[in-house]
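Can anyone check this?
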Amino acid sequence: MQLFRGETVVEYRAGARAVLPFAAVIATVGVLFGFLATAAGLSPLAAVLMSGTTFAGSAQFAAVSVLAGGGTAGAAVTAAALLNTRYVPLGVAIAPALQGSFWKRLVLAQFVVDEAWAVAYLGEGRFSHKRLVGAGVVLYATHVAATAIGTAAATLPADPSAWGLDAAFPALFVILLWPHVQGVSRITAAVLGAIIVLSLTPLTPPGIPVVAAAVASLLGAKGG
């Protein structure tokens, strides 16, 4: 491929190896997403295509949870977009390392997800685009393949609530949130977000409470 011409494979392999522990987690999340997305009404193909084009687990879960609750497509897209705003500072930080033509940088940018970004970081503000690609390819392939497996599992005759999967959406977001609830401002943001959701849920259409609660995250932007 032209993208890799003249480059050694050492750094690509280093990125791929370093991200393997994360890939195991991504596989679990992918299977769960495929199962729940199909159970929520998406076709297996739509669920797999969503993983292939969105490639952002938390945003995908947010969008599907809104749709599953009867929310509009607009609310689902807004919720997903708000969750993905965290990639703005990540992209700004790694941008100097993504050199080459516009199209090459555009392709490389698709691999800037949390885990691949962390693997690509070399310290002192420096990043390796080769490690980013190595890690990104592994994560992308794992995420899409795991989603396909999850959609296949969803076709089996079973009641998801019997496995506790009806509680998977809230449980997943608690897991994602927990490591970041440190410091007064972030705890305040989490509590305020919960209050907003609980207050609006009986009064507004599905999806609106999630979007409104995301505004509370602005309080935690500076950290605690």
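Reply from J.R.: I decoded it. The chain has two domains: 2-167, 181-224.
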